[in-house]
Amino acid sequence: MRICLLGPSYPFRGGIAHYMTLLARHLSARGHDVAFLGFIRPYPRWLYPGQTDRDPSQAALTVSTIPMLDWLNPVTWARTARYVSDWRPHLFVVPWWTSFWAPSFYAVLRGVRGAKATNTVLICHNVVEHETNWLKEFCTRRVLGLGDSFLVHSRQDADRLRRWQPGATIIRVPHPTYDPLIPARVGRQEARRRLGIEGKVLLFFGFVRPYKGLAYAIRSLPLILKQHDVTLVVAGEFWRGKREIMALVHRLGVDRHVRIIDRYIPNEELGIYFGAADLLLLPYTSATQSGIVQLAYALDVPVVAARVGGLVEVVEPGGTGYLVEPRSPGAIAEAVDDFYRNERAPQFIERIRQMKHRFSWDQIVEALEHLASSPAGSTPNHRSLAPGKFA
Fold this sequence. Notes:
CATH class of the largest domain: Alpha Beta
Strand order of the largest sheet: 3-2-1-4-5-6-7
Number of helices: 14
Radius of gyration: 21 Å
CATH superfamily of the largest domain: Glycogen Phosphorylase B
Low-confidence stretches: 377-388
Structural class: alpha/beta
Shape: globular
Number of domains: 2
Mean pLDDT: 91
C-alpha cells in the first residue's frame, strides 16, 4: 500500500517529530511504500518561544524525508498538494496539533481533495490546542472538515470530533510507546550520581507551559517534605513563566529541594532523568494525551497524574500510578506520601511491565490499514465509527 505522510521530522525536535518518524519506520517495516514529506521551515522565530527548533540529540531518530512544506511560502503548499495528487497514495496521513498550521494544511488538503483514490487521515494529537480561542477553533474546524477519517488517542478528542463531524470515521487507539527514543537505560544510583542528587527523586519532564501545572507540583513540596526528603527535578525548556516559578520556589522556601534544568533534553539523556526518578509528576490542568507518560512507562517509572483528559485512560490508579484531582497540591502530596510510605514501587513497576503491550505501534499501523478500506472522499453522512478493537 502507498502511504504518504506530511509532518515534521529530524532535524526538527519535539514529540510530533518523534511520532511521525516512528510512524514512518513502522509503516515501512510492515512492507508499505512510504513517502514522508517533511518541513522546510516549521515555525517563525518570533512565534517559537524555545531556544531553537533543532534537535540537539546525538542519538537522534532519523528517517528518509523529502523537504517539501514551508509555512510561509504558498508555492510549497501547492507543490505539496501536487506531489500527493500525482503520487496517488492510498492514504495521506497528516498530524494535527496546533492551528498555526491551518493556512498551509488547509491549502494542501484542499488541493488533494481531487485525488479520488486517496483517503486523507488526520491524526489528531489535540483536536483543540491547549491555549485556544474562537479564531483557533474556527481554523481547526475548517481544516478538520477536509479529512476523510480521523485517528485520535483519547476519548475526549473522539467525543469532540463526533460533535463537530457527526458520522465521521474515527478510530481511537492509545498513544504508542516511545521506547525507540531511548538509546540506553541508566541504573538509579548511576543516574543520580550523574545528576548530583541523593535520596528520593520526583520528576517533572518536558516543555514547561502553563497548562502543565508545574506550580501545583511546587506547592505540594512543603506538604511532602513534612514526611519525606525529596528532590523535584524539573527537566525541560521553559516556554514562559520561569520567573514566576522561581519566585514561588523561593517564597515557599524549597530552593534546596528543586533542581531546574531549563533546556531541551536530548535523547541520550532520557535514561538519566527517568532512571533517577521514583515518580513522574503530571499535574496538568488540561490534557488530551501525553507522550511523556509513554516515556515513563518505557523506563518503568510510575506516574502521578491529574485526572484530566486522556490521562485517565493510560494511568491505572493503584496499578501504574495515581490519578489525583487537578489543581490540588494536597492530592499530589497524598499520592507521593502513599507511594513512599507503603513502598509501592515494586508492584507499580511490575504492573507497568505487564501492560506495556497496550501501547504498541502495531495498533497504529493496523488502524491506518483499517482506514484505508474506507471510501475516500465520502461525505460525513456516509462515515461511521470504526468497530471492534479500534472503538
